Amino acid sequence: MEVYKFGGASVQNAENIRQLANIVKQGPRPLIVVVSAMGKTTNKLERIANAYYLHNRDYKNDVLELKKYHFSVAQELFEPQDKVFTKLENLFGQLNEQLQRQPSMNYDYDYDRIVHFGELLSTTIISCYLNRTGIKNLWIDARELIKTDSDFRRAKVMWAEAQKRIKERLTFTDTDIYITQGFIGSNINGHPVTLGREGSDFSAAILAWATDAQKVTVWKDVEGIYSADPKLWQEAQRFDQLSYDEAIELAFYGAKVIHPKTLKPLKEKSIPLYVRSFINLRAKGTVITDFDRDLSPMMPVIIVKDNQTLISIKRQDSGFISEQDMELVFSIINHYKLNNNVMQRSALSFSFCIDFDRVHLAFFIEELRRHFSVKYNTGLRLITIRHYDAETIKKMTAGREIFLHQQSRTNVYLVVR
Ligand code: ADP
Ligand code: ASP
Ligand code: MG
Fold this sequence. Notes:
single chain, alpha/beta, Carbamate kinase, VC0802-like, 2 domains, eight-stranded mixed beta sheet, six-stranded antiparallel beta sheet, 14 helices, globular, binds adenosine-5'-diphosphate, binds aspartic acid, binds magnesium ion
């Protein structure tokens, strides 16, 4: 049994969905196929959720555009009478029903109720399309399988419960291909949840872990994992193999190619992860395994994370920053579910970088200001260089203003503009 995962770019138009069908057709059996929302759908749903929560009716146009996008892709793939159109109408009906309710007091709860529709829409189109083209499969609702706690927008998996449900439902007695959604699940009361942005890779790993799959393949718009984003750096080199630990480090610092939570369940069961190109099927890709000869010779690996906000706090009485002060800062970060990326402490100040969050940043800063003096800059870039050398640091900082520079034995972190 194997697991395939297709991300947003691999299903963003009719041509790519035909290519997905081609890959699945040639693929192994039995097979679980995990699919993300099409193209930039999740970003759009996020905008809709934000506007809805703030009682701003501007989202109506976004909903129409989203509907037009899904229907136009479906029109290229199906005959006009196909049942898929009724299914899509139903899903948009459910989304609109949600949008007609009063927002609750819980942004994260409302966010998940809206944002999870992206994966329901994409998998509906793809499952129907595969069935129409003779690739028989069953559509499975991931909300029935991936059970989580109620930490909406970054729900934590209840592993034993999820495994039980996955094993009970995915028996392969009714089909040899299941199509399901990445990124989504539900809590014990059946309310939809999401697992954190980019979480579909993680869903594939959860399903592989629960079913003891032989391997997982994530099909991407790049030919594997490189020493830097190959879309930004032509000279980036592809890795044939990486260890789980090295891959976890790259993902943790923000190499968007793999979601950071993906590797742990796979490592636990020694399930290899293949990262392959969905365009060039002959390309070798990268395999992540128990490999123990990483990066020899240690090649510098560059990881860039944009849209960073660097925040520096000082005590209002100009005293030393204490452990209690830091504890307070972390509890506030946690309360707003912000991602904290790098931090630095001096006697009188504490600085840290977070991913920009349009909805929560102002509230977060306001709360910090109740306790500390706060300065912050937005629109920054966090550069992590693993196995750094002087030349790479120089190249990455040339002509840039450096806000923070931190160095350990293996990594250098630079926050720049
Ligand atoms: P998916 O939607 O399939 O999950 P993503 O867009 O999330 O795909 O991830 C693939 C993208 O990750 C690539 O298009 C590439 O621009 C980017 N990327 C960043 N760092 C790396 C890296 N080190 N190696 C390969 N791709 C990278
Ligand atoms: N669709 C979700 C997102 O864009 C999950 C994913 O693509 O992995 O974040
Ligand atoms: Mg991704």
